[in-house]
Please model this.
Amino acid sequence: MQRPAAAQVRALLAALAVLGVSVAIAIVLGRVADRREIQRTTAAAEAGALRGQTALRTLLAGFEEQVRVASANPPLVASLEAGIDRATLRDLLFNEPWLKSFRSSVDGFGVVRRGVAPEVSARLPEKFDVKDLSERARSERRPASGLRVAGGQVLAVVACPVTLTDGSESPLLLATKIVDVGTLAMVAERAAGAAAISDGRRVLVAAGESSAGAGVDLSEIKRLVSLSAPAAITLANGRDAIAAVPIDGELRLIVHVRRAPAAGGIAGTTWPIWVTLIIGIGAAVGVFLLVGRGVRPPHARRATPDDSPTMVTSVGRYRVIDRIGLGGMVEIYSAVTTGEGGFRRSVVIKRLRPQLAGDPAAVAQFCDEANLLAALHHPNIVAVQDFGRAGDQLFLAEEYILGRDLGRLVKRCVEQVKRSLPAEVVAHVGFELLKALDYVHNVCNEEGKPLGIVHGDVSPENIMISSRGEVKLLDFGVAKATDGRPSRTETGVVKGNVSFMSPEQARGEGNDARSDLYATALVIYYCLVGKPLYESHAGYELLLKAGAGPGPEEWAAVGRVPPRFSALLRRALAPRVEQRYQSAREMAVDLERLIGDGAQRTHALIGRLFGPELTAEARRLAETPDEPAHREPMPT
Ligand SMILES: Nc1ncnc2c1ncn2[C@@H]1O[C@H](COP(=O)(O)OP(=O)(O)OP(=O)(O)O)[C@@H](O)[C@H]1O
Ligand SMILES: [Mg+2]
Model:
């Protein structure tokens, strides 16, 4: 028999231990919530900075066009061709009425005939180095633009070649415009925050206010003016973030955004912590009473949000066989369902992670995915079989594809065969994928109204290759429809696999069907080469790279793929959406010519690389007993 005092001490220690564990869990939950908030805020600032950068580029492109039109003015061209002297040229530039609107729309201008110094100029700064722009404009025979600092002001500068018919000389028309508060206000508006241009030491010009409302001014930007670019930081309050992107030389664009508070306010984000603490206190009191009375607490399973997902043996009426994936939002299991007369069917269960069961945004996103998938019926798209709730957890049952995702196929092929997929296999996979996308992009509801679906996350891990070589598109977790149904895609929040993302999607500007085709091209490149096109970039750098699209290095890499593919990739990866393939069907036509015996080769390849594994997997699904020996309750 224990002495009563010893029992009390034991009870107290046990209660303190339970309390300690619950406080630790609450702290971890708090940290996770903080980190998530910080990630969202940082992503919003990064996306804002990218949009601001694009707005500046657009402004420069508009200015280039304006100067190009002036440079083609026939009297100017004729005078330069005639080799008029400096005084006449000056008179022409300053007084002729045909250049009046040009003169009044720019802040400074000048003409360079030889070298890089203007022969005649007005209102151009004294020390004004435009050598690089002049050389670029001459060598590329098109306007070149950039940003320069003169007299503490930021100037947009354009150097534009004046094309003479005899081509003996290559004069340039120069023009400048001050990037003032008004100009930057447009950039700030696009960035949905406050924006400033800095040279790393001081703010040169600044404007704007966060769209989230009062209180955001430029003081934070001024404090963080030396933030190197690219970079992003979130301030201590978790709602304000500042991101910097390079714009020209030392100059950087700094953007400050403030995120609106999460729906549900503080209570919306901190309630799991409070619930954990309350449960912890309750459990501590319970343990104290039970142990104090000398009764051992029942050997009950812990009921915490972190309960190990490996303990699941059934989900609703589905008997779980293996866990095949664990994503940020879902746990993925292979499972079987059985019924009367020996009925048996293999499925894949995607179950919303227990931690997210109470997160309304995650639940809505998961329901969206299920509803969207339910509207799709196509041999190249994984079919949804069921959507429901087991306990308090949502799950989606999909047709089970015996095979491997394209990411694993490419990796295994590179490891074992020391080269990536054969060209015919790539063409087959790409063609079948485009058939799925053609259907997705054009599918209509029962009334014949297009649903306007965009997948938004076309990437190797979301494409399954079955053991028979069939290709199936899956994971509509990021997909959106434009038919009036609510879409989860928040402006400025980038979702999906960045390595396979179109520039417009990476910049948070929204994506349409053509973005899926861009992603398809990046997948085709990956399959041909065995590495993603932007392989040397990671993290925020990768997002910036994806937002900018291929640079000279990447274009050179695209040029090294088999020539039959490089023309197709060049078109599909064109920076301007209008220059790309406009529909999946159009792109599929070009790919179809390259297939040859791709279907048979795909079948043979997956058999060679994964045959025994897949046979064992199929056997396990077929042989697992109908009834689980012991049905564990679902973790809560
Ligand atoms: N129907 C299926 N049949 C066979 N395997 C599948 C199926 N669905 C998914 N998988 C496997 O599970 C992996 C992840 O699936 P999925 O892409 O649907 O989840 P996820 O949405 O990426 O997860 P998260 O959103 O949390 O990152 C796939 O890459 C594939 O290997
Ligand atoms: Mg996925």
About this structure: The chain has three domains: 43-263, 313-400, 403-617.
